[in-house]
Amino acid sequence: MVRRVIFALIAGLALPVAVSATDQSIELTANVAKFCKFDADPTIGSLNNMTVVSSSTSASVLDVTTATGPTGIMNTAGFNFQIQATCNFPSQVTLTTLNGGLTDASPEPISSGTFLRRIDYNVTSLWNGAGVGILATTGVAGQTSPPQAAPHAHSGPLQVIVSTIANTTAPLAAGDYTDTLKISLVPQ
User: Fold this and answer.
1) Within a 10 A sphere around the Cβ of 137, how many other Cβ atoms?
2) 33-106+113-187 in CATH: which number?
3) Which of 28, 41, 140, 156 is the most exposed place for a label (fewest CB within 10 A)?
4) For residue 142, what are the CA distances in angstroms to 95, 96, 181?
5) What is the pLDDT along the chain (188 residues), one digit of tens a residue?
6) Where are the domains of the chain?
């Protein structure tokens, strides 16, 4: 009888044991924020009666070399501005003029005669060759171009072409004329 129990024990140990398997899934995630940025200092060329005073990725200063001729009549001026720009999501491009053209913040009084007090200009912008904004100043401070959509993530040269609008109807009043043109890239 002892032999049967031992045999039964040995036979029981030889039976296959059920194996249980399991899996673990690991999900990886990342969130990349939408952004637009200017990637490098701009290049400024095709200077027509303009001088570059300073230039960086966040601001540039250009000066009209000779604003008027000897009789005070406005001279034309212009330049081409190009900067590498990147938006990692569809974006919107706008151009905004702070003063609505070049104006004198502290004009001297005029006692007689007709003088101009503003230098208007046209702006056209292109991103990788596609038009993304047009603005013509008209004296309206804060004037903005209609927003233009860049429907996809985009990276490449943003070109801005600026030229003054020659107004020869009267001489330009003496003064220090300034304006700020802002180029905005905003992810949508």
Assistant:
1) 23
2) 2.60.120
3) 28
4) 10, 6, 10
5) 555 555 555 555 555 667 889 999 999 999 999 999 999 999 999 999 999 999 998 999 999 999 999 999 999 999 999 999 999 999 999 999 999 999 999 998 999 999 999 999 999 999 988 888 999 999 999 999 999 888 899 899 999 999 999 899 999 999 999 999 999 999 99
6) 33-106+113-187
Residue 1 C-beta-side C-alpha neighbours within 13 Å: 0
Asked whether the whole model's pTM tops 0.90, one would answer: no
Assess contact for 94 and 143: CB atoms under 8 A: no
